[in-house]
Amino acid sequence: MEQTPDRTDLRILRGLQADGRINNSDLAKKLNVSPATCHRRTQRLFDEGYITSVRAEIAPDRVERGALVMVGVVLDRSTPQSFADFEAAIKKLPFVLDCHLVAGDFDYFLKIRVRDMADFNRLHGDKLIALPGVRQTRTFFVMKEVIDNAPLDFSDFPQHGNGLK
């Protein structure tokens, strides 16, 4: 049975979000719980979907992906099938980091990392405008990344009970 995370669970989430490489023993020490308790709770947080993955953040410029581009996409029709077709196709493009269905002037916003403007121009011409249902795109080259991939703030998440022991 799924339990609402308690104070200790939330501290585990914060600790792992701050340092995904921390080992169980060090995390347990930091939280003042036993390693067995820490491991069991961490595993439960994975099992219940509170933690979806742990991965390294790669420095984009070190792997020649220093240009960040946001792209607004407008589809030619607003039907469930046109959305489904676009979403199936966009998931196959490895250079797209994020794709969000949005309300407003665009149907989708894409976050893309590329080498440079020429690289984006090639991808735009060869891949993006060829996606099913795309009527229009609007491109925004990011001049400065002020905040990118900030830790999730869940300080106001309700705490109930003691979680699983």
Description:
By secondary structure, the chain is an alpha+beta fold. The chain folds into 2 domains: 7-47, Winged helix-like DNA-binding domain superfamily/Winged helix DNA-binding domain (Arc Repressor Mutant, subunit A), CATH 1.10.10; 60-141, Alpha-Beta Plaits (2-Layer Sandwich), CATH 3.30.70.920. Helix content is 34%, strand content 18%. It contains 5 helices and 4 strands; from the N terminus they run αααβαββαβ. It has helices spanning 7-18, 24-31, 35-47, 80-90, 117-128, and strands at 67-75, 96-101, 108-114, 134-141. A 4-stranded antiparallel β-sheet has the order 2-3-1-4. Helix 2 packs across helix 3. The longest helix has 13 residues, at 35-47. The radius of gyration is 20 Å and the shape is elongated.
Structure in a nutshell:
With about 160 residues, the chain is an alpha+beta fold. It has two domains: about 5-45, Arc Repressor Mutant, subunit A, CATH 1.10.10; about 60-140, Alpha-Beta Plaits, CATH 3.30.70.
